[in-house]
Structure formats: structure tokens, C-alpha cells
Task: structure prediction
Amino acid sequence: MSRSERSARPAVHRFWEGTGATKTFTHPLDRGLLEQYVPRDSRILDYGCGYGRLTAQLVELGYRDVHGADPSRALIERGRQEHPELPLAHIDGLPLPFEAGSFDAALLFVILGVVTGDEDQEVLLSELARLVRPSGVLYLSDVPLQSDEHHVRRYEAASAADPNRPYGVFSTPDGGLFRHHRPEELRELLHAHGFEAVEERSTPTATLHQGETTRSVQVIARRVPAG
Ligand SMILES: C[S@@+](CC[C@H](N)C(=O)[O-])C[C@H]1O[C@@H](n2cnc3c(N)ncnc32)[C@H](O)[C@@H]1O
Result:
């Protein structure tokens, strides 16, 4: 399958149509960071919105033009039940049906943490670079590599089982597949796709839907104007 065919219809990990769609997501949004960089009249894409947790939070904060999109049918159906007023779209594949440069900002919360392949991440970032207007903002938050013994053992076991996997990719007993990154990797990935990190914060604790407590990283990046 060619890269463009694959990007047009990425395989949604079965997990996100089953067990993953029943979880409660808790990865924290830093309200101060959001408000500092994203004005209230912005048009915002919440990519990988799940059941619309953050889409709803943004609307509660007074953002009026927020669009959620996610490839999991189960999660979007759940979101429509929980928040019938929100524009949550089930979109299984890229490119997304939006005009180039039509968003002032995009949220990408715990998506690079579940889109684990290097090439899939590149396709995803290229699409966000297409959608966010020059000088617009990408607010990315994800789970960095953890240094505690439990996680290190988990990364090492996964690497030993499959040395071709990037370090930090691991499976969970309930069938999930995740990737934790070094924060520098995230910055480099953003840079390679025309986004410059302008602010980065580390949040001491975030409870993941697997019930584990971890650190999270929040990055605000600006879309560099072409030329
Ligand atoms: C941990 S949840 C985070 C949901 C939401 N961003 C939040 O923070 O509440 C991961 C989400 O990634 C979505 N997902 C899985 N594969 C994806 C892909 N290839 N592209 C975009 N989203 C994907 C899942 O359906 C799920 O909604």
C-alpha cells in the first residue's frame, strides 16, 4: 500500500473502537497556556477529540468555534450522546475535509502517544501543518518518557521483544498500544513540519486512563509562515 493510500485511510487500532472507547481521559489542559496563546475568537480543531472532553472544555471557557474530529466511530458516538451540542465528526482517514489554513489553532492531546509509527506521525503532522494557518498555534500535550522503574522496565521489555519498534512504544494488558517520547523528539517532529515550539511546560502528574500516574508535557508551537 502506498503512503498516500495509507494516509487516506489509516487503520484505527481496534482498541479505540472497543476497550479504549470506554475509558475516561484525564490528560490535563493548561488553561493559562491556552488563553495566553489562543484568543477566544479563534477557529480551533481538536484533532483526536475522543468523546469531546476538551472540545467541551473549550466551549465552556468561551471558545465558540471549536471542531472535534476523531477516527473512532465508538468515541464520536459516545461524544455525541454526552455533548449533543458539539460539532464532533467521525473522520476515518486523512486528509481531513477542511480547507488549508482554515484553523487558527489545533489541539493535539495524547495523539502522538497513540499514533505510534514514525511515518504515521509524519503524515499526521503534515496534515496539521496544512490546516493551521501561518502563525497559527498548535497546542500539543502528551506523555514523555517516564523515568520510574515500572515504566523503564516496560520500555525495555517492549524493546527486547521487538527491537524494530521505536524505544518508548509498548502495549498494555488491555490491548492498547502507546508511545512515550523524549520531549526533544516532539520538538524535532514539530520543527520538521513547520511548527516552532515557543513554550513548553511539564506537568508533574496526570492520571492516564490506564489508571497510572505520569508526568505530561505541554508544548505551544507556532506555524512558521512559508518563505
Ligand atoms: C487518549 S485518547 C485522547 C482523546 C482526547 N484528545 C482527550 O485528550 O480527551 C486518544 C485518541 O486518539 C484517537 N486516535 C487513534 N488513532 C488515531 C489516529 N490515527 N489519528 C487521530 N486520532 C487517533 C483515539 O480514537 C482516541 O480518541
About this structure: Residues 10, 12, 16, 25, 27, 48-50, 53-54, 70-72, 75, 109-111, 114-115 surround S-adenosylmethionine (CB under 6 Å).
